[in-house]
Amino acid sequence: MAAGPAPRSCDTFVALPPAAAGGRVVFGKNSDRPADEVQEVVRFPAAAHPPGAALECTYIRVPQAERTHGVVLSRPAWLWGAEMGANEHGVCIGNEAVWGREEAAGGEALLGMDLVRLGLERADTAGKALTVIVDLLEKYGQGGNCMESPMAFTYHNSFLIADRKEAWVLETSGKYWAAEKVEGGVRNISNQLSITTKIDREHPELREYAKSKGWWDGEKEFDFAAAYSYVNTARMTTSRGRYCEGYKLLNKHKGSITSEIMMEILRDKESGINMEGGFMTTGSMVSVLPQQADLPCIHFFTGTPDPARSVFKPFIFVPNVTQLSKTRSPTFGNDDPVKKQPRFQSKPDRRHELYKKHESAAVVMETVKGKGKEMLKEMQELEKQKISEMESILQNGCLDTNQVVNLFSQCVEEELKIYS
Predict the structure, then answer these.
(1) Dihedral of CA 67/181/199/233: which sign?
(2) Helices vs. strands in the chain: H and E counts, helices first
(3) What does residue 312 show for φ and ψ, rounded to 5 degrees?
(4) Peptide bond preceding 342: is omega within 30 degrees of 0, i.e. cis?
(5) 250: part of which helix (H) or strand (E)?
(6) DSSP labels for 205-248?
(7) What is the rounded CA–CA span in Å between residue 237 and residue 10?
């Protein structure tokens, strides 16, 4: 079997006041996945579930919660979980692949992406989402193929979890984990362990296990990333990797980070954050979480690859919000090759309507210089207009819910018009 692209991962960012402008929390993530994978943007409303109901995740079933919160997700179209998303309470989560000394399990369990969605569906604060994820991790473990391919691709996960008030970084190695509370300023995660000696919550046997493996002598200060991976934590923020580049970009804009600045960071090609090649940025998200509870959280999603030539479209949770049909991929039920054993024997066409039109437009942008430039300019104008509309909602605090129900879908229509 031919080897696939070298495994890479994504980048997730958060800026809290005073690093973020206007006393808001700003969250951002690029999802870097196999270049031909389709990412869809989907919404699931809050729901009540009968006692004893089972929930079918990507590979395994777990007991369903009695109540689940409304969520909006950006996810690879073949699986149940999500790369990133938000819930109606303003909780946002993104995950990253991480590797370390502990072998990543090949056996089917919960994917990190399943844990993202489970955290969003079951928790109304960042701290509670962390608890949901580590409890499930302890009970069911993480593992299974993370790629729609007969070639196995497995990893451990790290998570950045944010709400209106705080953020948490959660990093895992098998069932072991460490968490760091982010109380101000900026923080980013990439595909390496990054929690060092500031550990605010941890697996009860985290240190003992490291000691039993000879990764820590029990004498010097415990450093999670140094013990559980091969990272030289002293050089982490100065080496040329994406984690370091992301850290530099965040710090460059410290004090004035807005949704637009976050989008700019996600579009940065030079740093490798906007990834190109066999693994590329297949979807992006930026969220603005105002600290005042009476103001809405605003979540922007591209639903298309390469944020440098995609439109970030706003979504706000309101009652009766329109179903997001044009960024939703076709479903194949029990005939889906992911559901059949052996899995991944074939690959159906999972492209949604926006993806198809964007794909054709990308060809024009590559090949027909004049027309492509004009198209890109119109896309940028559409995005700017939406950002300023969202800004005026946050400034004036007046939200016309009747208008907002179609916010994302309407923006998708306007984007499709540019492509036609």
Answers:
(1) positive
(2) 10, 18
(3) -80, 115
(4) yes
(5) helix 242-252
(6) THHHHHHHTTS--SSSPP-HHHHHSS--GGGTTTSSSHHHHHHH
(7) 17
Distance, CA of 360 to CA of 363 (rounded, Å)? 5
pLDDT per position as a tens digit, 271-285: 999 999 999 999 999
Cβ-based neighbours of 219, under 8 Å, separated by 6 or more: none
What the block records as the tokens of 40 is 């869809």
Integer Cα distance of 3 and 288 in angstroms? 39
**Is 0.85 topped by the overall pTM?**
yes
Tokens of 180: 């760091």
DSSP 33-90: EETT--EEEEEE--EE--TT-EEE-SS-EEEPPSEE--EEEEEETTSSS-SEEEETTS
Q: Which amino acid is at 356?
A: K
Answer for the pair 63, 53: CB distance below 8 angstroms, yes or no. Answer: yes
Task: Answer for the pair 13, 28: CB distance below 8 angstroms, yes or no.
Answer: yes
d(CA 303, CA 358): 10
C-alpha 369/C-alpha 307 separation (Å) is 19
Query: 74-122, pLDDT tens digit by residue?
Result: 999 999 999 999 999 999 999 999 999 999 988 999 999 999 999 999 9
Would you say 206 and 176 are in contact if contact means Cβ atoms under 8 Å apart?
yes
276-279, long-range: CB < 8 A, 24+ apart: 276/306, 277/5, 277/35, 278/4, 278/5, 278/6, 278/34, 278/35, 279/5, 279/6, 279/7, 279/8, 279/32, 279/33, 279/34, 279/35
Positions marked active-site: 10
Q: Which residues contact 395 (CB under 8 A, 6 or more apart)?
A: none
CA-based torsion, 126, 254, 190, 223: positive or negative: negative
β partners of residue 301:
285, 313
What CA–CA distance (Å, rounded) separates 398 from 172? 41
Q: What is the pLDDT of residues 203-219, one digit of tens each?
A: 999 999 999 999 999 99
**Residue 14: closest CA among 166, 220, 238:** 166
